Amino acid sequence: MLEVSEVNSFYGEAHVLNDLSLSVGKGEIVALLGRNGMGKTTLIRSIMGVKPPSRVIGSIKWNGEELIGLPSFEVARKGIGYVPQGRRLFPSLTVTEHLTVLKPAHEKTGWTFEKAFDFFPRLAERRQNRGDQLSGGERQMLAIARTLMTDPNIILMDEPSEGLAPVMVRHLEKIMAELRGEGLGILLVEQNLYSALDVSDRLYVLETGRVVHSDVTANVAANLDSLTQYLGVH
Q1: pLDDT value at position 230?
Q2: 133-141: Cβ within 8 A, 24+ apart
């Protein structure tokens, strides 16, 4: 389980996260919602140690082990995967090269080359195409597949639906549901309220670095007025 407890994150004198607490269990999709500038990406960076804030106070534990202060590669080695906002692919590498840069093609344990292509058949069709030759939806699938090759137990996804057509967003939701069926936990950072409601088990809403609302998704979906005031949607 990922447990974030009373975390405060700072960039210089700017206090971005304020006593933020949340949790993600095994095989659970937890959505973190909020408008731009509310601290969602700062939380991901605080967990992963990627471009981390200048100071993080509190506790971030994965299966009881403290993560604060660890370099990002050590966090990843503990089974925490990260799909960054904007996909961050290498434009000159092929689909195959993206998948084998972290694990050789002959590896037969965990998420293998073959399993990734079985899970994402569209990528199998495009295996020789470079990153800059893929559509937005294909790039997002590749970003997720690349992360799966590290054999994570939980994945942090930062705005995965950004820039995608509605049909691709629905496909992405299906992928996340299938990953949950594989036993993976997912912390889903989103601005797309309705997509988050469709796929998540629980959700948290951030405003100015604080959790201002949390509940199981079924309760929230029955009373959207409790969220729209924070998210500015209608």
Answers
A1: 62
A2: 134/89, 134/95, 136/163, 136/164, 136/165, 136/168, 137/164, 137/165, 137/168, 137/171, 137/172, 139/87, 139/89, 140/87, 140/164, 140/168, 140/172, 141/175
